[in-house]
Amino acid sequence: MTRTLHASPGLAEASAFAPPVITGTSAEQALDILFQALLDVARRHDPDLEAVLHGTADISRFSPEMLARALQVQGIWFHLISIAEQNAAMRRRRHIERTEGRAALSGSFAKVFSDARAQGIPPEKIQALLSDLRIRPTLTAHPTEGKRVTVLEKFRRIYLVLRELEMPRWTDRERNGLMNELRDQIELVWMTGELHLEKATVEREVAWGLHFFDETLFEMLPETMDTLEESLAEAYPGTPFKVPPFFQFGSWIGGDRDGNPYVTAAVTRQALHRNALASLNRYRDGARELGRTLSLTERALPLPATFRQELDRQLAESGQARAIARRNPGEPYRQYLTCVLRKLDATIARNEGQHPSGPDYASADGLIEDLRVLERGLEDAKCGALGRDLVRPVRRMVEIFRFSTVRLDLRENTTRTTETLQALWRQRNGEGDPPALGSAAWRQWLDAELVRPRDPERSFENLPDAARETLATFALVAEMRESLDREAFGAFILSMTRSVEDVLGAYLLAKEAGVFLDAAGPEIRPEICPLAIVPLFETIDDLRAAPAIMRELLTVPVVRRSTRWQGGVQEVMIGYSDSNKDGGFVAANWELYKAQSKLTRLGQELGVGIAFFHGRGGSVSRGGVPTHRGIMAQPPGSIRGRFRTTEQGEVVSFKYANRGTAAYQMELLAASVFEHALAGDGERASVGHDDALEALAGASRAAYVRLLQTDGLVDYFQSASPLDEIALLNIGSRPARRFGARSLSDLRAIPWVFAWSQNRHVITGWYGVGSGLASFLDVRGREGEASLKRLFQDSRVLRLVLDEVEKTLMMVDLDIARAYAGLVPDASVRDRIFSMIEAEYALTREMVLRVSGGSDLAERFPLFRDRLKGRLPTINQVGREQVELLARYRAETDEDRREAVKSALLLSINCIAVGFGSTG
């Protein structure tokens, strides 16, 4: 096994050493330190693995048990490489900021606003965009993260110690102490193990999501807002800007019911309370720290009259005025914070199911106002800097995270919602069959029920269990918006949306469950739905149908009223994963682009803002592209400051596990959205842009669909990849298939992408592209080639697509893919399908380089190329071993031996995923 990145020989051979100070921008010194620490741990626990780390071991001769240990250590090393790379990237950014200024940093607020000022954009336009800005990355528990929370915590500590080792101030004794701590953390990772021994539960997924808030996001997101304000002040000095809490986090964890039978209304309730307690506990810590810090006495600082009045009110409300005054005599700000803390304690107790005796906070608004009063009190006492530096960060944290930490989305598919609606029809109309879906009678029934007054006494007890469960989830929205936080929920995402009736059905379920509000008071109709109902268009056919569906939907009165109440914006979710699985990479990206363009124009025509929720995954095949380039490649005018995107699995830990990286990623996302919004209609398509992309998409999709429809593809895919074995990793609570069927169409996009990347075919990121380009050139000849090359330079969407295809081709290894294909028992199926893949790969490679003008793959991306090339020798070796392990695991009948092979097999899957940096 070849070691991925080599430490310098002197360090690699030493058993103990004085670690160097990490300087410059290279990751090499950090890698030396990490490699040596890992080597020391290996020597202590399993000396045979030293040869594995040095790349001199022949792992093909290892027993399954020894191979499992070798794969584990290589997986750890891949993680350590990523830590070193993140550390080096942070140092590069700091170096640029120190030497050239913050405005020289691409993707920073400072650059966006300095460019805006240079372009003559007035501050009024900046403020208008700030007021409308809404950015919400949304965490999902899609099963693509292999690391347990306890392992994430240890890698986080390794990152922190490595950062400490950068400091030149340490003595040799202190640096050796840090090195000992580094080795200890690596040893703990070694002894803990990464594989989930049991199937993940929703409760564990909730804990996994909250880990990132506890470690980084509670602190770093308010700091990101401060960075924005500082950048505005530098670009527009003297102009006061009002910055709302525009950046918030959403989550599907505990609310995503689509195909997951383990997410029930009770589980969602539990997730909401755990989310609330996470933020409430953090606010309590912040208030306690303020109480310890703000020890200002009335003897030294006269108390402003207005603050005295507010303090007296708080003391009287507490019922403990004398006790509080005796505890902190003459310290009014501490007394005030004691009252705040008591109300926070009571709020926490209430959320834990207790019955506090004292006053509490009915909502986050009360706590926000109390902190504002404290800030004003300090400002009036001529201590405004203390209010800005100490109190405002806590207040801003509450504004962002409120009493919910995240805005929890609910997601369900139309199969379930339709079944519930049909059960309601039978309840009201007696036994028999309800009108056919899509019929005029079905629509008439929905319209009539939506305007009919709701009967609050109606019982759902006689409905089927599944229908009661769906309605209970909607009822939870009404309850928790009232008792927990009005922003506890984000939206209801309706997957598999096919018609207007699908969406109206979700509105009706919300109404029946008591979610609707009276728009003009308790006695006056009409009603509105405060919960955003968001259709999800996933397949290519769905994306094409979306404009017509939304045009009709936005004429329905209850939808228009609700949209107006929700800020005049209708959100639409678009799916990258299923559209790619449905039509291939080029076709999916072009259909997504077209759908957004058409829906944006529709919104302008109807006077309704259309905001897009991008359902992206981590891999390129599922929409995972560089943040700035991905946003700037969206259709002109399609963002306008409102942007939602899913953050899944390993992407979450990559972006948010460490504070510096989290701050950078959040600033990059927000600055990119702002830049796109400032550009307005921005990029104009060159002549022939749409026609060329339409032709490319059509031809590439035809080639891709031919592969999908080839006889035996399902059997080939299952045999020539670890598709079924991936489920044994226990990295997600939901099944790999929505309804338990075994068809290709029912297979979720995540295992579809995951398995194709493991077996090095990676068809989801390139197949059909070569045929599309070749067809275009065959039809249009030299003029077409010139047109393509011009579009490659001018069109952001085509450039992004072909760039990502070119990088994906580097992940393909046909020799290894052929070895996986050897697992297919039917030789005719194997040869037919593999020959198609082999021919399309050669064509795609040739065509992409012809259009880009390159001589070799990814030569325009030297950092990506070097990073991947450093990992490939080990990934390739592990892939070859995985082929053997799959064959042995599938053939083994002895249970003990099979279990030993299974452990090594799962570690090989994990190792390849970590090496590539993405799974599904």
TrEMBL record:
It comes from the Bacteria. GO terms for cellular component: cytosol. The active site is at K581. Pfam families: PEPcase (PF00311). Keywords: Pyruvate. SUPFAM superfamilies: Phosphoenolpyruvate/pyruvate domain. GO terms for molecular function: phosphoenolpyruvate carboxylase activity. InterPro entries: PEP_COase, PEPCASE_His_AS, Pyrv/PenolPyrv_kinase-like_dom. PANTHER family: PHOSPHOENOLPYRUVATE CARBOXYLASE. Forms oxaloacetate, a four-carbon dicarboxylic acid source for the tricarboxylic acid cycle. This is Phosphoenolpyruvate carboxylase. It comes from Methylobacterium pseudosasicola.
